[in-house]
Design a protein that fits this description.
Bound molecules: heme C
Number of helices: 6
CATH superfamily: Cytochrome c-like domain
CATH topology: Cytochrome Bc1 Complex, Chain D, domain 2
Largest sheet: none
CATH class: Mainly Alpha
CATH architecture: Orthogonal Bundle
Length: 132
């Protein structure tokens, strides 16, 4: 009985932080990752090129969101203050690299776009942010 109780306690200890991460919006672990790429003119230019190629079809050419279709729900505005999945550079990076599970309507780009290029896109999205 005692052993069983200890096992349950151990399982709770393992399970509870995972539950907290799942419930919380955003991604605290990803939020701690620092952006290693400075937002230079080159970075923003490359980010824009990649954005137009891979992202504009869903999020719109000005990143203000897309209407979606029968298969894909509307893609959110990336220039406003609201961001369901976190608004730090690290969280945006993680969304682009890993997608948004479990539906993955926002698909993962980790195998198509190199990390440095993803950071360029993060810098580009940041440069579009509305300032009001
Ligand atoms: C197939 C359509 C599609 C493509 C292509 C796409 N996205 Fe998304 N994206 C979505 C959808 C739909 C969501 C909302 C996902 C959710 O909340 O479940 C989303 C969510 C996001 C979010 C989170 C926004 C928030 O409010 O937290 C970011 C950031 C993002 N996308 C960036 C990008 C970038 C950058 C690219 C290109 C590399 C890209 N997306 C390509 C459909 C797409």
């Amino acid at each position: 009985m005692r052993a069983l109780l200890q096992m349950c306690l151990a399982a709770w200890c393992v399970a509870s932080p995972i539950a907290v991460v799942t419930i919380a919006q955003g991604n605290p672990e990803a939020a701690r990752v620092k952006n290693p790429v400075a937002a230079t003119t080159e970075s923003l230019g490359d980010g824009k090129r990649i954005y137009q190629r891979y992202c504009a079809s869903c999020h719109g050419s000005n990143a203000e969101g897309g209407p979606g279709n029968d298969l894909i729900p509307a893609a959110p505005d990336l220039t406003d203050k609201e961001s369901k999945h976190g608004s730090t550079d690290g969280e945006i990076f993680s969304v682009i690299k890993n997608g948004v599970p479990p539906e993955l309507n926002m698909i993962p780009f980790g195998d198509q776009i190199k990390d440095t290029e993803i950071w360029n896109v993060v810098n580009y999205i940041r440069s579009l942010a509305k300032r009001n």
